Amino acid sequence: MLATIAEHWRGAAQDVRDAVCVLAGNRVAAGVLIGGRLQSASRPGPSASPSNGRPRTFSPMGCR
Question: Given a cut of 80, is residue 19 above it in pLDDT?
Fold first, then answer.
């Protein structure tokens, strides 16, 4: 995730070699930095859990 690299380069994680960066907003994204190198980055898609009691359906056009 670009935000993890940016935090290591110029942000709060400048002086550390290991860090986890999590961004939460409309979606959640996370990046793991170990030994100064990005090890994994994740940006999961929408949750399949029902919000109104009915399961969501997914299509190329988005969630319904």
Answer: yes
Phi and psi for 8 in degrees, rounded to 5? Answer: -70, -35
Closest CA to 42 of 58, 16, 63, 22: 22
| Domain limits, the chain | 1-43
Which residues, in sequence order, are CB contacts of 17 under 8 Å at separation 6+? 33, 34, 35, 36
CA angle centred on 45, ends 17 and 54, rounded to 5°: 140
Q: Tell me the average pLDDT of the chain.
A: 75
With residue 3 as reference, give the H or E element that holds it: helix 2-10
Please tell me the distance from the alpha carbon of residue 59 to that of residue 46, in angstroms, as a whole number. 12
Contact 38, 32 (CB under 8 A): yes
